[in-house]
Structure formats: structure tokens, C-alpha cells
Design goal:
By secondary structure, the chain is mainly alpha-helical. The chain is 30% helix and 6% strand.
């Protein structure tokens, strides 16, 4: 759990960041974080990579971004606005995919939510689905 003060600071940083850019951000393995949001992302990255085998520090890093959703919206309002969720997708290097049509996928993916739904309401952000399948594993069809 994070403190309400930290959550508010991260929210404020997220609002300012989205005003400047809706792009994703990259930080290499040995780079120092540039803001509190990136510091948290780097801590999560360091936690997961500290025990990773076959890990190349020279070519590794993390991609991160923020999304702001209004937890006060009803499920119907949420689904009918531009702030609705992200479609089913693979995490991948989007620039390589759009430029060269190739899929390079992360070895590790995580999702971190910094908020909770208001008391007495459903979690309108659910479900998040993570599956152990990628494009190189043929899907069975019948």
C-alpha cells in the first residue's frame, strides 16, 4: 500500500505528464529515474530483474506510461467514453512493429494500479487478463 500523499503526488505528476505527451517512456537498465513515476517503475523493474536469469544489462530497460481513468464514472459511462480501457493486445516494441512489421516482446511485463475503486463500487478497471501466449506459439484451432 502507498500513502495517500504519495498517491496524490503521483496523480499530479500523471496529469502533468499526460498534458505534455501520451507516449510511452523508456529508461535503460543503468539510467537514473527522471521523476517519481519513473522511480517507482524502476523499482518494480529492479525487483523483477534482480533474480532474472539470462538477463543482458546492456540492452535491457523498461518502458512505462500512465493512464488516468475516472473511478467515479459508472460502468456504462466508462464504457462509452474515450477513457475506456485498452483493447486486448500483446505488449511489444510498438515502434519496431509499425516500422518493420516485427514483434519484439518483453521478457517481463507487469501492470501496477495506484488507485482503488471508491468504497461500495465495482472495480470498473477489471478485468486485466495476462496469458502465457505470444505470437510464436501457434494457437490451436478446431
Amino acid at each position: 500500500n502507498i500513502s495517500e500523499n504519495l498517491r496524490n503526488m503521483l496523480y499530479d505528476q500523471s496529469v502533468e505528464l499526460i498534458k505534455m505527451s501520451k507516449d510511452t517512456f523508456w529508461i535503460s537498465h543503468n539510467q537514473s529515474p527522471r521523476c517519481a513515476l519513473e522511480s517507482i517503475a524502476k523499482q518494480i523493474y529492479d525487483f523483477h530483474t534482480s533474480s532474472a536469469s539470462q538477463f543482458d544489462h546492456l540492452t535491457s530497460g523498461l518502458e512505462w506510461w500512465v493512464q488516468l481513468k475516472d473511478p467515479k464514472q459508472t460502468t456504462d459511462e466508462y464504457q462509452s467514453t474515450s477513457s475506456a480501457g485498452i483493447d486486448l493486445h500483446y505488449d511489444k516494441d510498438e515502434e519496431l512493429a509499425s516500422t518493420f512489421g516485427i514483434g519484439i516482446f518483453p521478457q517481463i511485463s507487469t501492470i501496477t494500479y495506484l488507485s482503488e475503486p471508491p468504497n461500495g463500487t465495482e472495480n470498473v478497471f477489471a478485468p486485466t487478463i495476462i496469458v502465457d501466449v505470444n505470437h510464436s506459439i501457434p494457437l490451436e484451432t478446431s
